[in-house]
């Protein structure tokens, strides 16, 4: 191998290492946002929920009910959807450019309308990096098959 080939190989290795570090950094940032979302839902923190979600949020429940950003936040803050506990299981994060897809199983204890209930559903979250911040732009829940 001549010196030029070695130089090109060294540059390619550096680019690959940089890309891996960048992707790992972004994955950590998305994971952190998901955790902040989990806590904000339990705490019914409307200010945090608004700061985590895009204005054009599409939030779909496992029964097919659709909510926009305002409806989603109101449902949590008003107590219509009252999460006592939330645990995200088997979470995966895939990032491509400025879009992150997060998949997990949501296991939660709710007290909607004063009625205790345990739920376990599949979730797909779509996050987009907007102005250097990851925002939730879509959420789709689905019933798990046994």
Search tags:
146 residues, Nuclear Transport Factor 2, Chain: A, 3 helices, 6 strands
Question: Can you walk through the features of this model?
Answer:
The structure is a single chain. The protein is α+β, with helices and mostly antiparallel strands. The protein has one domain: Nuclear Transport Factor 2, Chain: A. It contains three helices and six strands. The protein has a six-stranded mixed beta sheet. The longest helix has 41 residues. The N and C termini lie far apart (57 Å). The relative contact order is 0.15. The mean pLDDT is 90.
What's this, in brief?
The protein has 146 residues and is α+β, with helices and mostly antiparallel strands. The protein contains 3 helices and 6 strands.
Give the arrangement of secondary structure elements.
Blueprint: H1 3-43, H2 46-52, E1 53-60, E2 66-67, H3 69-77, E3 83-96, E4 99-112, E5 115-130, E6 133-143
Parallel strand pairs: 1-6
Antiparallel strand pairs: 1-2, 3-4, 4-5, 5-6
């Amino acid at each position: 191998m001549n010196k030029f080939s070695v130089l090109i190989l060294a540059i390619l290795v550096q680019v690959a290492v940089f890309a891996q570090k960048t992707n790992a950094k972004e994955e950590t940032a998305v994971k952190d946002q998901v955790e902040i979302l989990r806590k904000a839902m339990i705490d019914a923190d409307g200010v945090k929920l608004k700061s985590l979600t895009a204005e054009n949020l599409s939030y779909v429940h496992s029964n097919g009910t659709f909510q926009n950003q305002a409806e989603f936040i109101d449902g949590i803050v008003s107590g219509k959807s009252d999460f006592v506990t939330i645990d995200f299981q088997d979470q995966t994060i895939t990032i491509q450019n400025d879009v992150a897809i997060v998949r997990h199983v949501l296991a939660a204890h709710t007290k909607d309308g004063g009625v205790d209930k345990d739920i376990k559903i599949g979730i797909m979250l779509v996050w987009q990096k907007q102005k250097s911040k990851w925002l939730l732009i879509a959420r789709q829940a689905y019933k798990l098959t046994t």
